[in-house]
Write a structure and sequence with these properties.
This protein is of the alpha/beta class. It is built from 31 helices and 20 strands. Strands 8-7-6-11-10-9 form a six-stranded antiparallel sheet. A five-stranded parallel sheet has the order 2-1-3-4-5, sandwiched between helices. Helix 25 packs across helix 27 (about 560-575). It is globular.
């Protein structure tokens, strides 16, 4: 397997066990270091790509001290320790490890922990940004060095290899009007070195003459957006385009990543990455390649044959800015992203601005998102916004409330079933994962899943395939997963109610929605938004809300968060007759109870607050749960969900 692993451990037996386990799994070990000084020496010599790191080491420096250096060098690491001291664990956590292996460990513990750590690292946004900055810095140094253009071109392609692994890379240029064309290939040899290969060498390697290669029928993307071809798509590409077929056969290539730039006049420049693997590229790499446009243009400057092509085409100098920024009509439409208002993300408080920044960062990346926060904070709205801003926006977002579906039915709901799979299965049912193929699935209240369903969900996320209940057909799933919960999943893991491996699969990029009481400056904007939208929906006259009414709303603490605010605005519109809502009867804050809670020094749990809020709503509705004016309507949740919460929270009274 690619990359070397450094083991930093001062206990010989443990270090030896780790070496045996990792080498047995096919990994290459860079060395074993008992101290920070020795570890840094090995790192400088062998540049490992991963480090297994004990916290307590020989010498005065600890593993946490070394971890700070590893973060600066952008080398991911996994802690290996038996220490459970809370302060040590907090210090270790601050260094942002990708995993934590507890001594004593079994072989399975090591490999599963490392697998999860690699997955988290590969999908870590901050790490990707640092890697891209490092790549740009490396290219700047290459361009500043002395040497021929050919040498610089090879070095730039080698640098790109660190971000986009490939086995063959080809740059081509064509002008349909003048029929002038050319290209330059770069092949990775067995020593993982990049070697240039021109068209003449390509023909010689394939045992062909020039007449057999022309005309080059090379695929080019219809816009400057990157296109990916894996598995059957690549086979179709080769059937249609003779040059891609020629390269595929000559170098045993089975997948491609292709990006096209419009050049001067009618010419096109095409960058094609190829891999021996059928699944050599993924959606994240297409996004990355779109961001590396300027670097690709810098590469063109160091391909002499391309410069000759430019000189033949025009006496005008090459306009590199237009190569990077000249969008097609299709791109212009695609780039018109919805704003916060159209997404329903209202507010400019500092904490909510951070949420919107996180949203803009994560949306383009095709990775899992875990949305945390109290009930009613807008977790579903955020999930919808992520979907709308992603490349999957034209496909569906399928929502599943894991708390609202009985445990006996949720497997069928998620994965579907065949006719006759169980009593009552009179027809085939397409599950939510299958409905979401190409789009997004939103798993709300993920913490309510039973342990056996968590195992099955984990398998689906790992294998990216499902089998309907009662069936045997394996169905590939191309689905982005967004999960949400109001529970403390780390506490649930400690209590044995939630699987650690599933948590790490979902928690690739966590976003915590702030409660409304922490963003009270957003209440006026939210209130006016609800007035405008609900008035239209309910056919009411009101267009605004008075300052006195807003003051009353701001003074309240909103245990039910934004959902409670929306319900109160809706209730006020029912009774309002004018153009402005003059007064709103916001619930009274329970100051006495809050003071008692503060004096006792105990903060109530979310579960306790949720229980109290449901009870107060039931009292307000005189015990009515479903139907018009019932608690379910005011709490904006299905009646079945509310009945389930009443039972789970131990609210014993029989409500109608």
């Amino acid at each position: 397997m690619d990359g070397k692993i450094l083991i930093v451990e001062d206990e010989f037996i443990i270090a030896s066990d780790l070496r045996i386990i990792l080498e047995g799994a096919g990994y290459e070990i860079a060395g074993i270091a008992p101290s920070v000084a020795k570890a840094l020496e090995i790192i400088n010599l062998k540049r490992p790509v991963w480090v297994f790191l004990d916290i307590y080491l020989s010498g005065t420096l600890t593993g946490i001290d070394l971890a700070k250096h590893l973060v600066e060098m952008n080398i991911p690491f996994v802690y290996v320790s038996a220490n459970s001291n809370q302060s040590i664990l907090e210090a270790a956590k601050a260094t942002k490890p990708y995993g934590f292996l507890v001594k004593p460990f079994r072989e399975k513990d090591v490999l599963v922990t490392f697998d999860i750590a690699k997955y988290r690292y590969e999908h870590d946004i901050e790490s990707k940004i640092l890697s891209e900055i490092k790549l740009q810095d490396e290219v700047v140094k290459i361009l500043a060095d002395t040497g021929t253009k050919e040498d610089k071109g090879v070095k730039i392609v080698s640098a790109i290899l660190s971000q986009i692994p490939f086995d063959f890379f080809y740059v081509s240029w064509t002008d349909p009007k003048t029929k002038v064309q050319g290209g330059q290939g770069f092949v990775k040899n067995l020593d993982k070195e990049i070697k240039p290969i021109g068209n003449a060498s390509l023909l010689e390697k394939a045992g062909k003459d020039k007449s057999e290669l022309e005309p080059i029928k090379k695929f080019s993307t219809p816009s400057s957006k990157t296109k990916i071809f894996v598995e059957h798509d690549f086979a179709g590409l080769c059937r249609t385009h003779s040059f891609d077929q020629f390269l595929g056969r000559t170098f045993d290539l089975k997948s491609a990543l292709i990006k096209t730039f419009p050049g001067n006049g009618s010419s096109e420049i095409n960058f094609s990455f190829y891999s021996h693997s059928k699944t050599g590229f993924n959606q994240n790499q297409t996004i990355l390649l779109d961001r590396l446009s300027l670097l690709l243009i810098q590469l063109l400057d160091n391909i002499p044959t391309y410069q000759q092509f430019v000189e033949k085409q025009s006496d005008q100098p090459l306009d590199r800015v237009s190569l990077v920024l000249k969008p097609s009509v299709a791109d212009s439409i695609a780039d018109k992203k919805p704003d916060g208002l159209s997404l329903g993300l209202i507010g400019e408080s500092q904490c909510f601005k951070l949420i919107k920044e996180q949203l803009a960062t994560i949306a383009p990346f095709d990775i899992s998102v875990l949305i945390l926060g109290e009930s009613g904070t807008g977790k579903e709205r955020l999930a919808q916004a992520i979907h709308k801003l992603s490349s999957r926006a034209l496909k569906p977002i399928i929502k599943v409330n894991c708390a609202a579906i009985p445990a006996t039915l949720i497997e069928s709901e998620l994965f579907g079933h065949e006719r006759g799979a169980f009593t009552g299965a009179i027809d085939r049912r397409i599950g939510k994962f299958e409905q979401a193929i190409g789009g997004t699935i939103f798993l709300d209240e993920i913490g309510e899943l039973t342990m056996d369903l968590q195992v099955k969900l984990l398998c689906v996320l790992q294998e990216k395939e499902i089998v309907r209940l009662g069936g045997n057909q394996v169905i590939k799933t191309d689905v982005r997963v967004i999960a949400a919960t109001n529970q403390n999943l780390e506490k649930a893991i400690a209590e044995g109610r939630f699987r650690l491996d599933l948590y790490y699969r979902l928690n690739v990029f966590p976003i915590t929605m702030p409660p409304l009481r922490d963003r009270k400056e957003d209440i006026p904007a939210l209130s006016r938004y609800f007035v405008a939208n609900l008035s239209k929906k309910m056919d009411r006259r009101a267009k605004d809300i008075s300052e006195d009414a807003l003051k009353a709303l701001v003074a309240y603490d909103w245990p039910g968060n934004i959902r409670e605010l929306e319900n109160i605005i809706e209730r006020s519109l029912v009774f309002n007759r004018g153009d402005i809502i003059e007064q709103i009867e916001a619930p009274q804050n329970q100051n006495t109870e809050k003071q008692t809670q503060q004096l006792s020094g105990r903060i109530k749990t979310i579960r306790e607050l949720e229980k109290e809020h449901i009870i107060s709503t039931l009292h307000y509705c005189n015990g009515k749960v479903s139907g018009v004016g019932g608690a379910a309507e005011l709490l904006d949740m299905p009646a079945n969900t509310l009945f389930a919460r009443i039972k789970k929270l131990g609210i014993l009274k029989d409500f109608e």
